[in-house]
Amino acid sequence: MISTVFFGSHHFSTPILQQLIDSGIFDIKLVVTQPARPVGRKQEIQMTGVKTLALKYNIPVEQPASLKDYTLPVSADINIVCKYGLIIPEKILNFAKHGSINSHASLLPKYRGASPIQSVLVHGEKETGVTMMVMDKEMDHGPILAQGKLAINPDENCFELSERLAPLEAELLIKTIPDFIAGKITPQIQNHEEATFCKELTRDDGKIDWNRTATEIYNLYRGMTPWPGIWTEWNGKRLKLLKIAPADMKIETGKLTAKDGHLYMGAGQNTAIEIFELQLEGKTAIDAKGFINGFKTTLSS
Question: Which of 4, 67, 222, 276 could join 121 via S-S bond, C-beta 3.0 to 4.6 A?
Fold first, then answer.
Protein backbone atom coordinates (compact mmCIF):
# COMPACT_ATOMS: atom_id res chain seq x y z
CA MET A 1 0.00 0.00 0.00
CA ILE A 2 1.02 3.60 -0.62
CA SER A 3 1.38 5.50 2.64
CA THR A 4 -0.37 8.85 2.26
CA VAL A 5 -1.09 12.12 4.00
CA PHE A 6 -4.33 13.64 2.70
CA PHE A 7 -4.91 17.40 2.73
CA GLY A 8 -8.52 18.50 2.13
CA SER A 9 -11.23 20.72 3.58
CA HIS A 10 -13.93 21.47 0.99
CA HIS A 11 -17.00 19.20 0.67
CA PHE A 12 -15.62 18.34 -2.77
CA SER A 13 -12.73 16.58 -0.99
CA THR A 14 -14.85 14.18 1.05
CA PRO A 15 -16.02 11.74 -1.67
CA ILE A 16 -12.49 11.71 -3.07
CA LEU A 17 -11.05 10.66 0.29
CA GLN A 18 -13.75 8.00 0.53
CA GLN A 19 -12.76 6.50 -2.83
CA LEU A 20 -9.07 6.55 -1.91
CA ILE A 21 -9.91 4.59 1.24
CA ASP A 22 -12.15 2.17 -0.65
CA SER A 23 -9.52 1.51 -3.32
CA GLY A 24 -7.33 -0.50 -0.92
CA ILE A 25 -4.25 1.05 -2.57
CA PHE A 26 -3.66 3.89 -0.12
CA ASP A 27 -2.79 3.68 3.55
CA ILE A 28 -4.00 7.05 4.84
CA LYS A 29 -1.63 7.81 7.72
CA LEU A 30 -2.99 11.28 8.46
CA VAL A 31 -5.68 13.73 7.32
CA VAL A 32 -4.91 17.45 7.51
CA THR A 33 -7.98 19.69 7.28
CA GLN A 34 -8.94 23.22 8.26
CA PRO A 35 -10.24 23.97 11.77
CA ALA A 36 -13.97 23.82 12.47
CA ARG A 37 -15.71 27.11 11.71
CA PRO A 38 -19.15 28.66 12.32
CA VAL A 39 -21.62 27.76 9.55
CA GLY A 40 -25.05 29.09 8.56
CA ARG A 41 -27.30 31.71 10.10
CA LYS A 42 -26.95 30.24 13.57
CA GLN A 43 -23.15 30.21 13.19
CA GLU A 44 -22.90 26.73 14.64
CA ILE A 45 -19.38 25.31 14.82
CA GLN A 46 -19.08 22.48 12.30
CA MET A 47 -16.15 20.23 11.48
CA THR A 48 -15.29 19.55 7.86
CA GLY A 49 -16.79 16.53 6.13
CA VAL A 50 -13.24 15.31 5.61
CA LYS A 51 -12.65 15.18 9.36
CA THR A 52 -15.97 13.39 9.95
CA LEU A 53 -15.01 10.75 7.39
CA ALA A 54 -11.49 10.34 8.78
CA LEU A 55 -12.79 9.80 12.30
CA LYS A 56 -15.18 7.14 10.98
CA TYR A 57 -12.15 5.14 9.82
CA ASN A 58 -10.01 5.98 12.88
CA ILE A 59 -7.58 8.01 10.76
CA PRO A 60 -5.63 10.62 12.78
CA VAL A 61 -6.63 14.22 12.01
CA GLU A 62 -4.73 17.48 12.45
CA GLN A 63 -6.27 20.95 12.02
CA PRO A 64 -3.56 23.62 12.09
CA ALA A 65 -4.82 27.18 11.68
CA SER A 66 -1.71 27.89 9.63
CA LEU A 67 1.01 25.77 8.07
CA LYS A 68 3.70 28.44 8.37
CA ASP A 69 5.34 26.84 11.42
CA TYR A 70 3.64 23.45 11.16
CA THR A 71 5.58 20.19 10.96
CA LEU A 72 4.00 16.99 9.73
CA PRO A 73 4.10 14.38 12.50
CA VAL A 74 4.40 11.49 10.03
CA SER A 75 6.30 10.89 6.81
CA ALA A 76 4.66 9.12 3.90
CA ASP A 77 5.26 7.98 0.35
CA ILE A 78 3.14 10.85 -0.96
CA ASN A 79 0.95 13.78 0.03
CA ILE A 80 -2.39 14.15 -1.79
CA VAL A 81 -3.89 17.65 -1.79
CA CYS A 82 -7.52 18.23 -2.77
CA LYS A 83 -9.21 21.60 -2.10
CA TYR A 84 -7.34 22.12 1.17
CA GLY A 85 -7.74 25.89 1.15
CA LEU A 86 -4.48 27.06 2.71
CA ILE A 87 -1.05 27.71 1.21
CA ILE A 88 1.22 24.73 1.83
CA PRO A 89 4.90 25.62 2.41
CA GLU A 90 7.54 23.99 0.23
CA LYS A 91 9.08 22.15 3.19
CA ILE A 92 5.77 20.29 3.68
CA LEU A 93 5.29 19.68 -0.03
CA ASN A 94 8.68 17.98 -0.16
CA PHE A 95 8.38 16.13 3.15
CA ALA A 96 6.87 13.02 1.57
CA LYS A 97 9.20 10.64 -0.28
CA HIS A 98 7.62 11.36 -3.68
CA GLY A 99 6.46 14.88 -2.97
CA SER A 100 2.89 16.20 -3.13
CA ILE A 101 0.22 15.64 -5.77
CA ASN A 102 -2.57 18.16 -6.23
CA SER A 103 -5.83 17.18 -7.88
CA HIS A 104 -7.03 20.43 -9.43
CA ALA A 105 -10.52 20.80 -10.89
CA SER A 106 -9.60 22.34 -14.24
CA LEU A 107 -7.61 21.56 -17.35
CA LEU A 108 -4.40 23.30 -16.38
CA PRO A 109 -2.86 25.67 -17.23
CA LYS A 110 -6.36 27.19 -17.54
CA TYR A 111 -8.06 28.39 -14.38
CA ARG A 112 -5.27 28.22 -11.85
CA GLY A 113 -6.52 29.36 -8.47
CA ALA A 114 -9.29 29.00 -5.92
CA SER A 115 -12.49 28.88 -8.01
CA PRO A 116 -11.92 26.78 -11.16
CA ILE A 117 -15.33 25.07 -11.20
CA GLN A 118 -17.22 28.34 -10.77
CA SER A 119 -15.03 30.08 -13.34
CA VAL A 120 -15.50 27.59 -16.18
CA LEU A 121 -19.26 28.04 -15.83
CA VAL A 122 -19.17 31.82 -15.58
CA HIS A 123 -17.05 31.95 -18.74
CA GLY A 124 -19.39 29.65 -20.62
CA GLU A 125 -16.88 26.87 -21.23
CA LYS A 126 -18.18 23.73 -22.94
CA GLU A 127 -15.55 21.42 -21.46
CA THR A 128 -13.58 21.13 -18.25
CA GLY A 129 -11.85 18.36 -16.33
CA VAL A 130 -9.32 17.54 -13.65
CA THR A 131 -5.54 17.67 -13.55
CA MET A 132 -3.09 15.61 -11.49
CA MET A 133 -0.07 17.81 -10.85
CA VAL A 134 3.19 17.61 -8.92
CA MET A 135 3.10 20.60 -6.59
CA ASP A 136 5.82 23.22 -6.37
CA LYS A 137 6.01 26.51 -4.47
CA GLU A 138 3.92 28.39 -7.03
CA MET A 139 0.13 28.14 -7.29
CA ASP A 140 -1.06 25.34 -9.62
CA HIS A 141 2.21 25.69 -11.49
CA GLY A 142 3.84 22.27 -11.23
CA PRO A 143 4.27 19.64 -13.95
CA ILE A 144 1.26 17.58 -15.04
CA LEU A 145 0.94 13.82 -14.53
CA ALA A 146 -2.50 13.23 -16.07
CA GLN A 147 -5.73 14.92 -17.08
CA GLY A 148 -9.33 13.78 -17.48
CA LYS A 149 -11.88 15.72 -19.53
CA LEU A 150 -15.61 16.19 -19.00
CA ALA A 151 -18.24 17.89 -21.17
CA ILE A 152 -20.23 20.57 -19.34
CA ASN A 153 -24.00 20.28 -19.50
CA PRO A 154 -25.59 23.56 -20.69
CA ASP A 155 -27.79 24.06 -17.60
CA GLU A 156 -25.78 22.56 -14.74
CA ASN A 157 -24.62 24.69 -11.84
CA CYS A 158 -21.46 24.64 -9.74
CA PHE A 159 -22.72 22.07 -7.25
CA GLU A 160 -23.90 19.71 -10.00
CA LEU A 161 -20.65 19.98 -11.93
CA SER A 162 -18.66 19.40 -8.73
CA GLU A 163 -20.66 16.23 -8.10
CA ARG A 164 -19.67 14.92 -11.54
CA LEU A 165 -16.02 15.96 -11.28
CA ALA A 166 -15.35 14.33 -7.90
CA PRO A 167 -15.52 10.68 -9.07
CA LEU A 168 -13.43 11.53 -12.13
CA GLU A 169 -10.83 13.11 -9.89
CA ALA A 170 -10.72 10.13 -7.54
CA GLU A 171 -10.51 7.68 -10.44
CA LEU A 172 -7.59 9.57 -11.94
CA LEU A 173 -5.74 9.75 -8.61
CA ILE A 174 -6.13 6.01 -8.07
CA LYS A 175 -4.91 5.29 -11.58
CA THR A 176 -2.08 7.82 -11.75
CA ILE A 177 -0.27 7.80 -8.41
CA PRO A 178 0.88 4.16 -8.40
CA ASP A 179 2.35 4.62 -11.91
CA PHE A 180 4.02 7.88 -10.87
CA ILE A 181 5.63 6.27 -7.83
CA ALA A 182 6.75 3.34 -10.00
CA GLY A 183 8.47 5.77 -12.39
CA LYS A 184 6.13 4.97 -15.30
CA ILE A 185 4.99 8.58 -15.76
CA THR A 186 7.18 11.51 -16.75
CA PRO A 187 5.72 14.79 -15.45
CA GLN A 188 5.07 17.28 -18.26
CA ILE A 189 5.88 20.97 -17.73
CA GLN A 190 2.85 23.23 -18.20
CA ASN A 191 2.74 25.83 -20.96
CA HIS A 192 2.88 28.78 -18.59
CA GLU A 193 2.21 31.30 -21.39
CA GLU A 194 -1.32 29.86 -21.69
CA ALA A 195 -2.09 30.12 -17.98
CA THR A 196 -5.29 31.82 -16.83
CA PHE A 197 -6.22 32.54 -13.24
CA CYS A 198 -9.29 32.62 -11.01
CA LYS A 199 -9.64 34.14 -7.56
CA GLU A 200 -11.30 33.24 -4.29
CA LEU A 201 -14.91 34.40 -4.52
CA THR A 202 -16.82 36.83 -2.30
CA ARG A 203 -20.51 37.77 -2.21
CA ASP A 204 -19.77 40.82 -4.33
CA ASP A 205 -18.79 38.56 -7.23
CA GLY A 206 -22.44 37.59 -7.54
CA LYS A 207 -23.63 41.14 -8.30
CA ILE A 208 -25.33 41.27 -11.71
CA ASP A 209 -24.31 43.74 -14.40
CA TRP A 210 -27.49 44.12 -16.43
CA ASN A 211 -25.52 45.40 -19.41
CA ARG A 212 -24.36 41.80 -19.85
CA THR A 213 -26.39 39.55 -22.12
CA ALA A 214 -28.93 37.09 -20.79
CA THR A 215 -26.57 34.24 -21.61
CA GLU A 216 -23.72 35.85 -19.66
CA ILE A 217 -25.99 36.49 -16.67
CA TYR A 218 -27.26 32.91 -16.82
CA ASN A 219 -23.66 31.65 -16.85
CA LEU A 220 -22.94 33.83 -13.81
CA TYR A 221 -25.95 32.25 -12.09
CA ARG A 222 -24.74 28.74 -12.93
CA GLY A 223 -21.24 29.44 -11.63
CA MET A 224 -22.38 31.18 -8.44
CA THR A 225 -25.00 28.58 -7.44
CA PRO A 226 -25.25 27.58 -4.65
CA TRP A 227 -22.67 30.09 -3.33
CA PRO A 228 -22.26 33.04 -3.30
CA GLY A 229 -25.42 33.35 -5.40
CA ILE A 230 -26.37 36.20 -7.73
CA TRP A 231 -28.11 39.42 -6.74
CA THR A 232 -29.12 42.88 -7.80
CA GLU A 233 -30.52 45.98 -6.12
CA TRP A 234 -34.23 46.82 -6.25
CA ASN A 235 -35.86 49.73 -4.44
CA GLY A 236 -32.73 50.18 -2.34
CA LYS A 237 -32.58 46.56 -1.16
CA ARG A 238 -30.60 43.51 -2.21
CA LEU A 239 -32.62 41.12 -4.33
CA LYS A 240 -31.29 37.58 -4.67
CA LEU A 241 -32.25 35.70 -7.83
CA LEU A 242 -32.47 32.05 -6.82
CA LYS A 243 -33.68 30.49 -10.07
CA ILE A 244 -33.50 32.05 -13.54
CA ALA A 245 -33.22 31.20 -17.24
CA PRO A 246 -32.77 33.16 -20.47
CA ALA A 247 -36.08 34.35 -21.99
CA ASP A 248 -37.02 34.98 -25.61
CA MET A 249 -38.09 38.57 -25.03
CA LYS A 250 -36.84 42.11 -25.57
CA ILE A 251 -37.03 44.30 -22.46
CA GLU A 252 -35.29 47.54 -21.56
CA THR A 253 -31.97 46.85 -19.82
CA GLY A 254 -32.37 46.64 -16.04
CA LYS A 255 -36.16 46.88 -16.13
CA LEU A 256 -38.16 44.43 -13.97
CA THR A 257 -41.39 43.49 -15.74
CA ALA A 258 -44.39 41.28 -14.98
CA LYS A 259 -46.32 39.77 -17.87
CA ASP A 260 -49.01 37.09 -17.84
CA GLY A 261 -47.96 35.93 -14.38
CA HIS A 262 -44.27 35.70 -15.31
CA LEU A 263 -41.41 37.88 -14.09
CA TYR A 264 -38.69 39.17 -16.41
CA MET A 265 -35.66 41.44 -16.26
CA GLY A 266 -34.14 43.18 -19.25
CA ALA A 267 -30.46 42.48 -19.97
CA GLY A 268 -27.92 43.76 -22.50
CA GLN A 269 -28.23 43.60 -26.28
CA ASN A 270 -32.03 43.35 -26.23
CA THR A 271 -32.06 40.11 -24.23
CA ALA A 272 -33.90 39.17 -21.06
CA ILE A 273 -34.04 36.61 -18.29
CA GLU A 274 -37.05 35.04 -16.62
CA ILE A 275 -36.99 34.92 -12.82
CA PHE A 276 -38.68 31.91 -11.24
CA GLU A 277 -37.62 32.25 -7.60
CA LEU A 278 -36.18 35.19 -5.70
CA GLN A 279 -35.60 36.64 -2.26
CA LEU A 280 -35.75 40.28 -1.23
CA GLU A 281 -33.44 41.38 1.56
CA GLY A 282 -35.04 40.65 4.93
CA LYS A 283 -37.74 38.43 3.40
CA THR A 284 -38.18 34.72 2.77
CA ALA A 285 -37.68 33.21 -0.67
CA ILE A 286 -40.79 33.25 -2.90
CA ASP A 287 -41.70 32.29 -6.43
CA ALA A 288 -42.35 34.79 -9.22
CA LYS A 289 -46.13 34.72 -8.78
CA GLY A 290 -45.83 35.55 -5.08
CA PHE A 291 -43.47 38.41 -5.83
CA ILE A 292 -45.78 39.83 -8.52
CA ASN A 293 -48.76 39.70 -6.17
CA GLY A 294 -46.82 41.40 -3.39
CA PHE A 295 -45.27 44.16 -5.47
CA LYS A 296 -47.60 44.59 -8.46
CA THR A 297 -48.06 48.31 -7.80
CA THR A 298 -44.32 48.89 -8.36
CA LEU A 299 -43.83 46.55 -11.34
CA SER A 300 -44.14 47.53 -14.99
CA SER A 301 -46.13 45.39 -17.39
Answer: 222
